[in-house]
Amino acid sequence: MIQIAPSLLACDFSHLEQEIRMVEKAGANVLHLDVMDGHFVPNITFGPVIIEGIRKLTNLPLDVHLMIDKPEKWVNNFVIAGADWISFHIEATTEVGKTIKLIKESNKLAGIALNPDTELEAIIPWVKEVDFVVVMTVNPGFGGQEFIKEPLEKVRVLNQRDIRVEVDGGVKMDTLPIVLSAGADIIVSGSGIFRTLSPSETIKNFKEMSENVKTL
């Protein structure tokens, strides 16, 4: 089943609970949470305290995407805060195996992410150890960026290897078809959902389009 993961970074944080209820009702499968540290990426978002607060508001899986240096130092904090899935960047650590092990030993799903310019070969030694791979279709750091289509070739290759793939960055109604046709299993969208006239309808349209691709 293709899963839709609204990225809360683009929601209205002054009405966070209402935003979460809205996407739940519309059929979102997962909530995506971008953690940025101002070092690995040129932006700062939120940390474990916010994750802990969100955990109290929903039973949906929390997909915590660590865009931070040395993620191995922070895995336990996010586990305690309530993360269900934890992904980290291959470019952010020299302790890839250790980071995966920490996540898996906590009985959480482990994901490994790679930037648009990073070659797929960088993660090949690890793909059988993780539960999913995050293919970035924007350069991480800020929401609302222009979609980069070239990384979709990585999605196609991973899909042929029967590896679960999450696509993150610039996914909107106009780019969703090519993301789905490349073989994505998890669709992350921030501004492509929350910055539309009706986020609820957008999620429903995402799901309908995903089901149509699935049945082809």
CATH topology: TIM Barrel
Strand proportion, as a percent range, falls in 15-25%
Oligomer: single chain
| Global morphology | globular
Order of helices and strands: EHEHEHEHEEHEHEHH
Percent helix among the residues? 25-40%
Judging by the overall fold, what is the CATH architecture?
Alpha-Beta Barrel
Number of helices: 8
What is the name of the CATH superfamily?
Answer: Aldolase class I
Number of domains: 1
Q: Which consecutive residue ranges, at least 5 long each, have pLDDT under 50?
A: none
Assigned CATH class? Alpha Beta
The helix/strand class is: alpha/beta
Spatial arrangement of strands, main beta sheet:
1-8-7-6-5-4-3-2
Count the beta strands. Answer: 8
| Mean pLDDT over the full residue set | 95
Distance between the termini: 13 Å
Summed up:
With 216 residues, the chain is α/β, with parallel strands linked by helices.
